[in-house]
UniProtKB/TrEMBL annotation:
Name of this chain's protein: Uncharacterized protein
Ranges for domain tRNA (32-2'-O)-methyltransferase regulator THADA-like C-terminal TPR repeats region: 166-239
GO cellular component, one term: cytosol
GO biological process, one term: tRNA methylation
Pfam families documented for this protein: DUF2428, TPR_Trm732_C
UniProt lineage: Eukaryota, Metazoa, Chordata, Craniata, Vertebrata
Superkingdom of the source species: Eukaryota
Keywords per UniProt: tRNA processing
Organism name: Micrurus lemniscatus lemniscatus
Domain DUF2428 residues, every copy: 2-164
Length: 242
């Protein structure tokens, strides 16, 4: 029955969103993917829309960053990225990827720095989920249009005074570098297989040119008002890696 199907979905949802043990949520993830695939092929309109509804609900819960929320913020957000990956996997690959667009737009907005203190938990979750999505090979080329925005979120997050944000930003940055340049295949540090010219890089990701330039300009024009010495900027490390 419909109620039984929803109960099964809630069972997987609770395990993925509340479990902290990797083995537990990895097993739940495998079963949940199968369930969402069934929903995507279902002719029942209510079942077909369930993944979209669940995805919207979890994004809203992440956005609210309610202190009473049982979402796990430690262990790289535990099973939350798996839950969202499974829901996105239910979307037809040859479609308009509307669920992916909605998800990426929401996550990138949350991953960027905010003046609201309570948004830190949301930011950490967003950075961790983005990392998982950029690593997911099943999303293929559909994820590439969001690489530049993800890179900006990672670099800006690295300048945060909060360690959890910096840590998640560094992990996201590392994933994006691999996504852009590929997995290192040779022993040589400057392998031709894992590099591209500046022209090619900025042709693929044009919005990164003004962003990186503005970040470098901010760093080079900032000096201590008393000593006139340059201040240390953590983000410079990531900028030089790019």
């Amino acid at each position: 029955t419909m109620d039984q199907v929803k109960d099964i979905g809630e069972y997987f949802k609770n395990h993925l969103l509340k479990s902290r043990h990797r083995g537990a949520f990895e097993l739940a993830y495998a079963g949940f993917v199968k369930l969402t695939e069934v929903f995507s092929r279902s002719n029942n309109e209510e079942l077909h829309k369930l993944p979209q509804q669940w995805l919207y609900n979890v994004l809203e819960e992440i956005k609210c960053s309610d202190p009473s929320s049982k979402l796990c913020v430690t262990r790289r957000s535990a099973g939350i990225p798996f839950y969202i990956q499974a829901l996105l996997a239910s979307e037809p690959k040859k479609g308009k990827a509307s669920l992916l667009k909605m998800t990426m737009k929401s996550l990138i907005s949350l991953a960027l720095p905010s003046d609201i203190p309570s948004s830190t938990i949301s930011q950490v979750h967003a950075l961790n989920i983005l990392r998982a999505l950029f690593k997911d090979t099943r999303l293929g080329e559909n994820i590439i249009p969001y690489v530049a925005d993800g890179m900006q979120a990672a670099i800006l997050g690295f300048t945060s005074s909060i360690w959890a944000v910096r840590n998640s930003s560094t992990l996201l940055f590392s994933t994006l570098i691999t996504r852009i340049f590929g997995v290192k295949r040779g022993k040589d540090e400057s392998s031709k297989k894992n590099r591209m010219t500046g022209r090619e890089f900025f042709t693929r990701f044009p919005s990164l040119y003004p962003f990186l330039l503005s970040q470098l300009e901010q760093i080079t024009t900032t000096a201590d008002s008393k000593t006139k010495e340059m201040k240390l900027h953590p983000g410079l490390f990531l900028l030089l890696l790019v």
